[in-house]
Predict the structure of Acetate--CoA ligase.
Amino acid sequence: MQINTFEEYQETYQKSINQPEEFWAGIASNFLWKKKWDNVLSWDFASPSIKWFEGAKLNITENCLDRHLAEKGDTPAIVWEPNDPEKESITLTYRVLHEQVCRFANVLKKNGVQKGDRVCIYMPMVPELAVAVLACARIGAVHSVVFGGFSAKSIADRINDAACKVVVTADGAFRGNKQIQLKEVIDDALIGCPTIEKVIVLTHTRTPVSMLKGRDCWWEDEIKLVDSNCPAEEMNAEDMLFILYTSGSTGKPKGVVHTCGGYMVYAGYTFSNVFNYQPGEVYFCTADIGWITGHSYIVYGPLSQGATTLMFEGIPTYPNASRFWDIVEKHQVNILYTAPTAIRSLMGFGTAPVQGKDLSSLRVLGSVGEPINEEAWHWFDEEIGKKNCPIVDTWWQTETGGIMISPIAFVTPTKPSFATLPLPGIQPILVDEQGKEIEGNGVNGNLCIKFPWPGMLRTTYGDHERCRLTYFSTYQNLYFTGDGCLRDEDGYYRITGRVDDVINVSGHRIGTAEVENAINMHAGVIESAVVGYPHDVKGQGIFAFVIYPGLSKDEDLTRKDILQTVTRIIGAIAKPDKILFVSGLPKTRSGKIMRRILRKVAEGDTSNLGDISTLLDPAVVQEIIDKSKQL
Ligand code: WT7
């Protein structure tokens, strides 16, 4: 499955375009199927209706666990590094992980979970999180993992949208020197979640928790009551594997749906190729399993390939800025996959935290989540890779299931800040606002994909029309990514950022409408508008313009109150970095907010605001500019 030379890449790419079905059938034959497919692909982007490997039967956990037992039973599957470096790390071999997954799968069954039921998982980055995810897949339950940084209300919305039956959580989580009371947040969420029947709670921080009779039970007690034999449920290739919520340009997060067969093939194939994973190597992805990166490249991709995947509970700066490098040294990490925001934040500490650390085990470096600026790219290359490790800048999305445009390590010549070339099977196209293809090189446009790939989303949970409208209706017969993109003279792709109303804060997607709705719920706020602006560490920061008529002298107190409201409604990750109180917003005669102007103000570039003659009240712009200078 692995591509080894650039010529081989070019040939493979051509074949994947000319004969996509043959190509993907060939890749899929490297996986374990209970029954082979009748048809490789049927598709139609208008509906949309996308089906890969129809008629095939499989269970992804047999690919991630059972099939490795004979030869790799004693090989580490998961190495866990705790938040506290003084605590012991834990290694789960493939045999042990298999047993734990089977056991917990039986716990889920015992608590009423059946094939097709939805299970919400809200857990810290501990091995049991991976176990819970795989246990769902084992019995054909659909997991919906919610990142630990979301508020009770956000969790409740997600649970209700998917009508989840069970929640798996923990008493609490450690993050740096902080503790997060996960069970308490779940208790708050569940006040408004009538579909939840059972809550399974893992002991982790040993913080006191309230346990509701008949509803709540302890993970540790439950696993003692079941046996360790759990046959894998036979799934159709197009059965749902998981739902993962992500933000878009409208208010409500969407439940992106991935299915068993295509997702498995795509996550496994891209993992093996992009990182050039070799047997026995230790692979460390610093993401959280609450995001798609963790799903595809901590759990499913690596385990499907029999890799050793390192899970880290903590944060890059705890107990100090050497932590990543200590982990690399301690576990002899060979492949490190992280985010530009982490690199930029560590860069800020200079080279001292890297000095004296043995990073010689490193062979491949990866970046994901947002555009990587040249300065961060070079720092990563020089200080961490010692100019000896290829950097794979991987562009993809929750919706794409796996990496789409990226160098293949040791194969594709890299170029700082470029995601470079499409992987085999991926057909990118740049279009103008009218949807006309922009051909040739040295051009900019909106990035679309014109042919299906196995890992793509199939629908948005409970609302197929929304999936169609969001991704398949902007341009006919194309999947629209929402990203702007440059194709340079060499045909290399550089992602320039979102062209819709989505902000990318530290690699996390946040919808401006979502933040506005949250701010508007604060008493006293009449209206608000939120835009992104360049931020040295986070990539983008959140800038909020807020109309709040009865403002007292202590503006800062009101600011803090608003932040508290946003934290309650969405979670701390959506807190605006800057709040500017204004008496009006720049609107067109038809009532549309001119975000272009607000973005300029937020960037601090008010010299050329362009044409503002269509504004209802041009005077409001001057007020905003003047006030922004005092912020
Ligand atoms: C958006 C998707 C996919 C994993 C994590 C984020 C941006 C992602 C890159 C990259 C430039 C990137 C895009 C994309 N993005 N990777 N290598 N270079 N931009 O997943 O939350 O679904 O966000 O992240 O804007 O659309 P996500």
User: Anything to note?
Assistant: The two ends are 55 Å apart (CA to CA).
